[in-house]
Design brief:
Chain lengths: ~350, ~140, ~425, ~220
């Protein structure tokens, strides 16, 4: 009997029934807002898939994304995905190190040529030849380019990989860029967030595994299922916004009443993410529920939007000196114009007087 | 209770989602009764507060059947007091992962898969073999 | 002096023999000179809401949008933006506002002179409070400089320069006064070297309404005042003020003020004439350069003063009357109560028009319109409003306090074949003095 | 978010600077012209000039009844969109935050639903104003490009604001950016067109008020 290496067979060997696929399928369908009718297709697709080789590259990052993704090791529905993938290279998680680690990466690339998925967290510095971040003597840029050559798809995890994130924040000393700028034509999924919601990652990978294609993305390359709506649109505090009830600080009456945090700088209205519905830590809470406005961490350049506590409708940058300067210039121009007009009148008057004589 | 978080919990508003979902359930149930066509309402992704969820549970109540599953974590399935309206709730690491209302004869997750049955038959045969020392081939299916 | 027509078919008169460019420049010079702070604020402020149209008798009676008051200011406005406004240097630099063309000035002549009686009703309608009529008066300065004035008004201008009055030569003035005094049996004073009151006249008193000359004399004699008429300063109507001839306005102003000072008068009484009030009461100091040392009052103010002060007693009519508020006296002069007091003293029950006082409708002849025969058809049209008001009031008397209004109303009635007498407040008082 | 950052940042700073520069330029340019001092003696009992000016500013808020008959639409509609704009601009919470960031003062806002309703009414009123301008023979004759530009630059922020609030037409941040940019255009145009009447009305009414008060005439 030929050894069956489908995921169904693997789980079966561990005594897990196909109900697990059904359950996982309904979970993925739910978080990705797929129609309930697609649950079985998803489950069947996953069951028939083979373990997916994943090469995880970490560049200019803080490991928060990995933390978010692997936060739980309990055998639960959320991390069944770890049974579906073969994490062939991840320098934080893998047991081996040094040359052996790099060897593992090369082996996986050779063995799964054209089929492996590259996951990237962290941005890539490209200034000065990319010298600001290197692993085993290879710059991040070089390693990314090498690894991408034979990849099937790329998943940029976290805002740094998706949009450059904090390393790219003004003044961007390392010339950090998003992965999207270096992928060439490879299919790319951005899972932004600082850190991203683990379910978004799970959902995107599962979709990729079951259907063999990339889920529908928004204009920033993010799965619409998770990034299709703003935090504000899905926020349970939205009714307070509509009724004009706001917290003016973090310890006032409004804050205690759980009013909308718009006035204290919440970026929910312009932030596309699923925090308000998926929430964090297994659905316990999310920043707004915990009393703090959204930072907008899943959006490009969120670090440079004038401050986390600056309300959305306020202008960015200091206005005072510019306006004072404008006022002085305006007054000068006004006086100049009036003097010129007066002179104009006088010269006209003079010519009139002459006319009289 | 003076902490901001605690009082926020207490003040979670009721948004009216529960009522809306009951209306949808009624429509789907009527359709199911007439045509036999099953359907599902996914409660995930709806910005329901805990109060909304409690209100929904109250309205639907519990009927004759209830089951607990232990498949990659715990799941609960029960029929509401309205025949054909089932609740399917999968628990994840730290809470509810999937929460569904299924309008059907019996939720699919309760039924065994024939491919699993195939393996099960083999395992059962092996178990027998171990017990009686007799090699008995399972019936081909 | 020639009547011409623009390419677009608008009639205009032109005086003198100058190149068009010279005319245009002369107009611009005068326009530019006029923009002081208030005029500039008003030039900046128009919202183009069209409310002023609803106030203008020429628009209301014709429905022709070109009579919208603010539209009459277009060349003036253009000159302002090109030469004076805060952005004028930029407009000039980039050629964003063109200079006013001679064709435009020609076309606007009739709008500025024939279709505006300077009544100022539009000023009250303007939500921004733009004093449109004042601006039109200022725009006339440029039109005059350009030699683009209705011929009849220019004729009066020249006559005044030659005679010292548009009605008769100065040399004849003393005779006219004496003759009228004899005719009406009233002792008159002319050219006394010293007097407390100096009386001035308008053309109406020297032509149609000579009785007014002795009416005031009668009252002054009655109260035993020291008064005189003066050949050196009798003409108060000030055609320069109306035409936009500033030189003449200054000359005529100085004449009456200087004379009053020379006579040592404490009060200069202006005739029953609206524009005389505007020119002498409010604008004289502009030419005099300082506060005018003589009290300048209108005939109506004088009447109210003697009546309210109990210096004269009047016979009571016990009848009803309506009153036409002369624009320059009431709306733009602030003399609203005085004529009403006098009418009350005469025992005339005043039935007010629906729009009266500062909201009164113009007779249609102010600002020189009545003297400008070219404007007759328009004026007669505007007269319809006044006629309706008078008919609606349906009173035994119809009184006004301005000779020009009286002439306009009489002419209007005659043209409309409408039998309506227009009475003078001064005459009513003079004719009804208690012994 | 880049368009929004541009709108909230450089575009807004630039247009506010132009706004301040232009407003002061225009006001100073007019006020620094030579005055004509009226040396004629005032009417007996005439109020002081400052009082006449203030009275005129308020007096002119409501037209004389006689002008209302013909000018009812202009007046009533003018009131509707002016009050509407005032409510939307001054009582919508995001706008209050904007104002607070510039001047440091704030006040309570209205519920969004009310503001949206008022905004819609304001937009309708502005459309009516345009329709009237395009059909009335008087307004057709006296209107200038200034009037249409000013109308457009008032209307567009209202419409983009409503669209942003209702999330229709594009993504919220794009709509918000367009709203902010439309306000930038409004601010830049403001001092150079008739929008300036928001400042000039005080001067214009006041100047005539002084003239009339001096003469003892009623405005």
């Amino acid at each position: 009997m030929k050894h069956d290496d489908t995921l169904a067979a693997e789980l079966e060997r561990r005594g897990v029934s196909r109900r697990a696929f059904l359950k996982f399928g309904s979970y993925i369908a739910s978080i990705m807002a797929l129609p309930p009718s697609s649950v079985e297709a998803l489950a069947e697709g996953l069951a028939a898939a083979r373990r997916q080789s994943v090469i995880w590259l970490s560049f200019q990052e803080c490991t928060g994304c990995t933390e978010s993704f692997t936060r739980s090791f309990a055998p639960t529905i959320e991390n069944l995905i770890f049974d579906f993938i073969s994490l062939d290279y991840h320098h934080t998680l893998m047991a081996v190190s040094g040359e052996a680690a790099e060897e593992a990466r090369k082996e996986a690339m050779a063995a799964n040529k054209g089929k492996y998925i590259v996951v990237v967290d962290g941005s890539v510095p490209i200034k000065d030849g990319g010298v600001y971040s290197a692993i085993a003597g290879v710059t991040n840029k070089q390693m990314l380019e090498d690894t991408l050559k034979d990849a099937f798809a790329v998943v940029a995890v976290g805002t740094c990989a998706s949009f450059g994130g904090i390393p790219k924040a003004n003044p961007n000393p390392t010339g950090a860029v998003a992965v999207s700028e270096l992928v060439g034509g490879k299919p790319l999924i951005n899972i932004s967030g600082c850190p991203p919601i683990a379910e978004a990652m799970t959902g995107a990978l599962s979709y990729l595994l079951s259907f063999g294609k990339i889920p529908e993305l928004d204009h920033l390359g993010r799965p619409k299922a998770f990034f299709g709506e703003t935090i504000h649109d899905r926020c349970y505090r939205r009714p307070f916004y509509e009724r004009g009830l706001f917290a003016d600080g973090f310890d006032d009456h409004g804050a205690r009443q759980g009013y909308c945090l718009y006035k204290v700088g919440c970026k929910g209205p312009v932030t596309y993410n699923a925090c308000a519905t998926m929430k964090w830590n297994g659905g316990v809470s999310f920043p707004i529920q915990s009393g703090h406005g959204c930072l907008g961490c899943s959006e490009p350049n969120f670090w440079d939007q004038g401050g986390f506590y600056r309300p959305l409708p306020t202008p960015l940058g200091a206005m005072g000196p510019a306006l004072a300067g404008a006022a002085v210039a305006g007054a000068a121009l006004g006086v100049g114009a009036a003097l010129s007009a007066r002179r104009h009148q006088k010269t006209y008057l003079a010519s009139l007087e002459k006319e009289k004589e | 209770m003076t902490s901001a978080c605690a009082s926020t919990e207490n003040l979670e508003p009721e948004t009216g989602f529960a009522d809306a979902i009951i209306w949808e359930t009624l429509a789907k149930l009527t359709h199911f009764a007439a045509s036999g066509e099953a359907s599902t309402i996914d409660l995930g992704g709806l910005p329901m507060s805990n109060r909304d969820r409690a209100a929904l549970d109250d309205l639907l109540g519990r009927g004759e059947v209830s089951a607990t599953l232990d498949v990659i974590g715990r799941s609960e399935v029960w029929e509401t007091q309205f025949a054909g309206v089932w609740r399917v709730r999968h628990h994840g690491a730290e809470g509810i992962a999937t929460d569904l209302i299924e309008i059907t004869v019996c939720p699919r997750i309760l039924s065994a898969d024939r491919r699993d049955a195939e393996t099960a038959a083999r395992r059962l045969a092996e178990a027998l073999e171990r017990k009686h020392g007799i090699a008995e081939t399972a019936h081909e299916t | 002096m020639t009547a011409k027509t623009t390419a677009s078919g608008v009639a205009y008169d032109v005086q003198g023999d100058r190149a068009d460019s010279e005319r245009r420049d002369a107009a611009m010079q005068a326009f530019v000179r006029d923009f002081a702070r208030t005029a500039a604020i008003h030039m900046e402020s128009c919202l183009r809401c069209g409310m002023c149209a609803t106030a203008c008798q020429f628009y209301v009676t014709t429905g022709d949008p070109k009579y919208t008051p603010i539209n009459k200011l277009r060349p003036f406005e253009q000159a302002y933006h090109r030469h004076i406004g805060p952005f004028a240097p930029i407009y000039r630099l980039f050629g964003l506002k063109s200079n006013v063309s001679i064709e435009m000035l020609q076309e606007w002549e009739a709008l500025i002179y024939d279709a505006c009686s300077l009544c100022g009703r539009c000023t009250l309608a303007c939500p921004m409070g733009i004093d449109i009529s004042e601006l039109i008066k200022e725009a006339r300065h440029g039109m005059y400089k350009a030699g683009l004035v209705p011929d009849r008004l220019e004729l009066m201008d020249r006559t005044t320069k030659a005679w010292g009055s548009p009605a008769s030569p100065s040399d004849d003035f003393a005779d006219i006064v004496r003759d009228t005094g004899e005719e009406n049996g009233v002792p008159v004073n002319v050219d006394l070297p010293k007097a407390d009151y100096v009386i001035t006249v308008a053309p109406a008193e020297l032509t149609e309404h000579t009785k007014a000359l002795t009416d005031i004399a009668k009252i002054l004699n009655k109260i035993g005042a020291s008064w005189t008429y003066s050949t050196a300063g009798f003409e108060a109507s000030n055609i320069g003020y109306i035409n936009g001839d500033l030189d003449l306005q200054e000359k005529m102003t100085r004449k009456i003020i200087d004379n009053a000072v020379a006579v040592g008068a404490h009060t200069l009484i202006l005739p029953e004439c609206g524009h005389a009030y505007g020119a002498a009461r409010w604008e004289a100091s502009r030419w005099y350069g300082k506060k005018v040392p003589v009290r300048v009052i209108h005939m109506t103010e004088f009447l109210a003063e003697v009546v309210n002060g109990g210096k004269v007693k009047l016979k009571k009519f016990g009848e009803t009357t309506s009153f036409h508020d002369p624009c320059q006296l009431v709306r733009r002069g602030g003399v609203k109560q005085a004529p009403r007091d006098v009418l009350k003293a005469l025992g005339l029950e005043l039935k007010e028009f629906e729009d009266h006082g500062e909201l009164g409708w113009c007779c249609g002849g102010g600002g020189g319109v009545v003297s400008n025969v070219r404007a007759d058809p328009l004026r007669f049209k505007a007269f319809e409003i006044k006629r309706k008001q008078v008919e609606d009031a349906n009173t035994q008397h119809f009184v006004t306090a301005c000779g020009q209004c009286r002439i306009t109303l009489t002419l209007g009635a005659k043209h409309a074949k409408w039998d309506q007498k227009v009475e003078s407040l001064l005459e009513l008082v003079a004719d009804n003095l208690e012994d | 978010m880049d368009l929004l950052a541009f709108a909230r940042g450089p575009a807004l700073s630039f247009s506010l600077a132009i706004f301040v520069l232009g407003v002061i330029w225009r006001l100073v340019g007019v006020l620094a012209l030579s005055p004509w001092n009226d040396l004629s003696p005032p009417r007996e009992g005439a109020p002081p000039n400052w009082l006449s000016a203030i009275q005129a500013v308020f007096r002119k808020m409501i037209p004389h009844r006689t002008f209302l008959t013909a000018g009812m639409f202009t007046t009533a509609n003018g009131y509707v969109f002016h009050i509407g704009l005032a409510i939307v601009v001054l009582l919508f919470v995001p706008h209050i935050l904007f104002i607070r960031s510039l001047f440091g003062v704030s006040w309570p806002g209205l519920p969004n639903g009310v503001v949206f309703g008022v905004g819609a009414l304001t937009a309708a009123s502005l459309l009516a104003a345009l329709a009237y301008r395009l059909t009335s023979p008087v307004l057709k004759l006296i209107s200038r490009p200034n009037d249409y530009i000013s109308w457009l630059l008032t209307f567009v922020p209202v419409v983009t604001g409503l669209a942003a609030a209702a999330h229709v037409g594009a993504r919220y941040e794009t709509l918000l950016a367009l709203h902010v940019l439309s306000i930038c255009a409004f601010l830049i145009w403001f001092p150079f067109g008739k929008l300036m009447h928001a400042f000039l009305f005080v001067l214009s009414r006041g100047a005539t008020g002084v003239r009339f008060g001096h003469r003892g005439a009623q405005l």
